[in-house]
Amino acid sequence: MVSLENRMGYLARVSENAKLSAFNDFLLGEVNHIAPNHNSNGSEEIFYGVLKAIRNNSKNDFESYYNKKSKSKPSKGSPAPFVNDDFLIFSFIVGIMKFNIDRNWINHIISIRNRNSITITFENILNENYYSTSNLPEIVFMFLNIYGKTLITNDFSSFTFKKVIENVRLFENRSDFQILCSLKAYDTIFMLKEVPDKKKIDRLEKFNFNFIERIRYISWIVQAILFALLIYLILKLPKYNPEAIAYIEKYNYAFTIFGALGLSVIGNVIPSIRNKSQEIIMRIFGYPKELLQDFKDKRDK
Question: Whole-angstrom Cα distance, residue 103 to residue 25?
Fold first, then answer.
């Protein structure tokens, strides 16, 4: 993807150009009234009208502009300038597909255009061949974003996003039409990146809760086993080490004091031991470090 500096500089230039600004707003889903200036030609006035008709979902207005332009019958030998106007042709294609208008005239216009990747993409859109590898996916994506979002699959979004990011020389092709489609496709996909299904999230949260609860039980069982083993060893001490028992009886009062203090210390230490043992078991079972840190933070609050 191009640098942010280049992107901002380009968009600043777009805002200073009425036609580019109008098309950019169209891709953004906005409808802005543009008063044609004295330098505007007939094709540009039709272009602005077509954009507005599509965004206002007005078939009658679109047909009015379309019928006016379709009276022109350019040929391969003498094509009119509007034939290679990507902005105008794209807007006509969107309207024709959206309002189900006869495609004979626009198919003829496409057939006499310069044969390049944009023309091939236009041709495939009219043939509803949206996922062809010969297309420029950013153009198809923006068409579908206007014409029918349900046709945009997750795979196609990912493919388009990848292609736009890989095109580090976007501004070098000098096609404002492709640049604007690429920038808007990137922004749209970035914002609409597939969000995990809520049911999946609920199931994962339930699994996480059950996992932590089971780890708590396992940790408690481990501590109980260790405590039972310690009691067992103490009970067996007279048999295996009678000298130690005699020593304890000799200083019984001191051990009574130490025992009381020890119980107090153990009472404070056991929660720490329990927490630490739980963390160790969670690590052994492969609990993610990030989630483990979140768990510790919530527990220590």
Answer: 26
Cα 280 to chain centroid, rounded: 35
Contact call for residues 66 and 96 (beta carbons, < 8 A):
yes
- The predicted model scores a pTM of 0.64
Residue for token digits 């993610």?
A: 288
Mean pLDDT of 95-110: 95
- Helices of type H across the chain: 4-15, 18-28, 42-55, 59-69, 86-99, 104-111, 117-126, 137-147, 154-166, 176-191, 198-240, 242-250, 252-284, 289-300
| 173/232 Cα distance (integer angstroms) | 82
> What pLDDT, in 10s, does the model give residues 4-19?
667 788 888 888 898 9
CA dihedral in degrees (51, 52, 54, 59; nearest 10)?
Answer: -120
Listed in sequence order, the residues at least 6 apart from 39 whose beta carbon sits closer than 8 Å to its beta carbon are none
Note the pLDDT of residue 216.
77
Q: What is the DSSP letter of 149?
A: G
Closest by CA to 91, choosing from 75, 109, 79, 112, is: 109
- Rounded CA-CA distance 38/107 in Å is 31
CA distances from 98 to 53, 144, 157 (A): 11, 10, 21
Which residues does 44 contact at the CB level (< 8 Å), separation at least 6? 19, 36
As a whole number of angstroms, the distance between CA 270 and CA 223 comes to 9
What is the average pLDDT across 70-92? 90
Number of Cβ atoms within 10 Å of the Cβ of 290: 8
